[in-house]
Amino acid sequence: MREEAQERIAKDLGFTAEQLLFMGKIISLPTKTTAISKVEVVYTNVNDEVGPVLELYQPRSLSLSVVLYGGLSEENHDTLQEKIGTALERVGIKRQSLFSYCTRSYGIDREDLSIDVHFGFYD
C-alpha cells in the first residue's frame, strides 16, 4: 500500500519517474561519501520562478543544493572535483555530467528532467 500511495502522490504532484529516480540518487549522496554534508531541495512548477508551489498536476522543476563539508574548502579544484565525481558514480550518475562554474562551485544541469544540482559550500 505504501508504494501505491507514494506513486500516486508523486504523480499528483507532477513528478516524473525519471525525476524521482535522479532526485533519489542525489539525496542519497550524503550516505555514500564523506565529501557531502547534506542536500537541500526546492520544488517549483516548471514555469514558476517564485518559491515552491505545490499545486496538483503541474509539471515540476527541482533545484538541489548539495552542501560540501567545510573542511574540503582547502582542497584544490581538481581534487574536489574528483571527490564529487566519485560520489556521483557511487549512486549511478556519470561523473561527466558534472561541470564547474568556477573554482569552488560545481553543478549538473539536467534540462531534460528540469533538474538543476549545485555543489558548493553554503552557510
Task: Describe this protein's structure.
The protein has helices at residues 2-12, 17-27, 29-32, 77-90; strands spanning 36-45, 60-68, 99-102, 105-110, 115-120. The chain is of the alpha+beta class and 123 residues long. The mean pLDDT is 85. The chain is built from 4 helices and 5 strands. It has a 5-stranded mixed β-sheet with strand order 1-2-5-4-3. The longest helix is centred in the C-terminal third of the chain and has 14 residues, at 77-90. A hairpin with a 2-residue loop joins β3 (99-102) and β4 (105-110).
Radius of gyration: 15 Å
**Element-by-element helix/strand order:** HHHEEHEEE
Percent range for β-strand residues:
25-35%
Q: Report the total helices.
A: 4
- Main beta sheet, described? 5 strands, mixed
Strand pairing plus helix content: what structural class? alpha+beta
Strand tally, please? Answer: 5
Question: Could you tell me how far the N terminus lies from the C terminus, measured between alpha carbons in angstroms?
Answer: 39 Å
Helix amount, in percent?
Answer: 25-40%
Mean pLDDT: 85
Low-pLDDT residue intervals, each spanning 5 or more residues: none
Q: Give the strand order of the largest sheet, numbering strands 1, 2, ... along the chain.
A: 1-2-5-4-3
Overall shape: it is: elongated
